[in-house]
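Pantothenate synthetase structure dump, as promised
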Amino acid sequence: MQTFHDKESARQWVWAQRMAGQTVGVVPTMGALHDGHVALAERSVTACDRTIATIFVNPTQFAPNEDLARYPRTLQQDLERLNAAEVDAVFVPAVDEMYLPGFASYVLPPAIAEPWEGAQRPDHYRGVTTIVAKLFHILPASHAFFGHKDYQQARVIQQMVAELDFAIEIEICPTVREPDGLALSSRNRYLTSEEREQSLGLYRALQAAQAAVAEGEDRIAEIESAMRDVLKNHQIDRIDYAIVVDSHDLQPAKRLAELSEGPIALIAAHVGTTRLIDNLKLVVK
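structure tokens r here:
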């Protein structure tokens, strides 16, 4: 597995593969890899002729009061896991390699970025669209792989790619969970053992939403109330949102029947000092 730290070497490697007629998958990450990231890499290895992963903790998507400084950095372990997954190359740039002094050229995210995460974390998605666009320019891959757990982010990137005519195919891969249902996240390592138990409330709240739908509940306010009840039963009182929206445009409605693309339940909540997100597409019979 080759490791690149400068943009030009990484770009030339990808171009060489593409000129040879190879498909190339890119797997953008911020490191601190878990089995969910590895699953993305393995999917790329399976789907594409060559795979390049990226490891870059992107400062422009963190607000001043967020966890940029303490975000876990485990580079050597990450490289070992990617090598074991048979990834061909890794791009690991420094901040000054990605952002010139005085950097001020941002990619404004599409409208789908405005609610929910966008409302809770102003400018977060501006940082996401900017770094992803830069990575797609530096690494002219044919495919890119993102996780379903960050569902709004994945939809933001899909919309950006469509609107700005990037010649790359985006694949959203299933969320990887612990046996008890907790969605894998690099931030899970912040949780104490007690908070780890509390955090199961997110997935159980999503399951409650699915159970309500399976029983024929069509009123979205009632489904959301069931989710909040489960969260509160797990002593999760700081809830940024627990909502059911259209899975395509993330817009709310009063009844499931009003959603054109089917419902998805989205949760963002705080367990201790750790902010967690999760989601589940709801099956309506």
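The chain has a mean pLDDT of 97.
lmk if u need the other ones
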